[in-house]
Amino acid sequence: MHAIKLTLLFSLICLVGFAQKKKYDIMKPPVEPPSRADYAVLEKRMACIHRNTYSLGERLKFFPFNQYKKVMLISFELPEPSAEINIAGKTQPKNHNEKEFTLALLAKKQKLDQTRIKENRILSALEIDKLTDILYNFGYKSTKSYKGLLIGDDGYSCYNPRNAIVFLDEKGLIAEYIEICFECHRREDSSEKIKTGEFCTEKYDLIRKYFYTVGIKYGTGKNVH
């Protein structure tokens, strides 16, 4: 009998608590979507600003620059779906997708297939200095939240990569890479360990112009937005 009374009392407490929660939920004002003014504030915070946060020595401690000294910039043209491609020494059937091609081209622990690359450039020490400066010393003007909103940009829904930053090991094999689609403002990294810095609004354009300056023209021209 005592157990029954306790059960009834507990049930009554739960009902009262549920009723109060329902009342509180009804009284809460509806969540309003961010206004244009809110987005304008966030966009200003997403803009790039250059800070001398990291010296060259500090920048070279970020992975994968701390592991691989040979850094190459490349451009490549995606094949027509009707073309045959070679993956791991085997000819693949036609009507492949673009992802299969780039995975085959940038397969780790393999040599780059020069026949499928349009342009390539091994970076000098001074050029690596400039690249790491863009990656790590350009960042958001502010990362603070605004009215509970945080900055973020996943790029466009498209993805047609034509360029990559490739890290080669001492044997000249692909160790890591950062595949980039400048047109869609998106990228794919070969490892979660890769540090690329903050991709503020102008970061893709800064890297694109850098590629173009060192001689990688395909995928980085003025027609790419």
Give the fraction of residues assigned to helices.
25-40%
Radius of gyration: 26 Å
Beta-strand percentage range: 15-25%
Order of helices and strands: HHEHEEEHEHEEEEH
Question: Helix count, per DSSP?
Answer: 6
- pLDDT below 50 for ≥5 consecutive residues: which ranges? 1-13, 146-151
Q: What's the total number of strands? A: 9
The helix-and-strand class reads alpha+beta
What labels describe this entry?
single chain, 225 residues, alpha+beta, 2 domains, five-stranded antiparallel β-sheet, two-stranded antiparallel ribbon, 32% helix, disordered N terminus
Produce a short descriptive summary.
The protein has 225 residues and is an alpha+beta fold.
Structural notes for this entry:
The protein has about 220 residues and is an alpha+beta fold. The chain folds into two domains: about 1-30; about 35-215, no CATH class. Helix content is about 30%, strand content about 20%. The protein contains six helices and nine strands, in the order H-H-E-H-E-E-E-H-E-H-E-E-E-E-H. The protein has helices at about 1-25, 35-45, 55-60, 100-105, 125-135, 205-215; strands at about 50, 70-75, 85, 90, 115-120, 140, 165-170, 175-180, 185-190. Strands 5-2-7-8-9 form a five-stranded antiparallel β-sheet, with no helix packed on it. The longest helix is centred in the N-terminal third of the chain and has 26 residues, at about 1-25. It starts with a helix and ends in a 12-residue tail after the last helix. Residues about 1-15 and about 145-150 have low confidence and may be disordered.
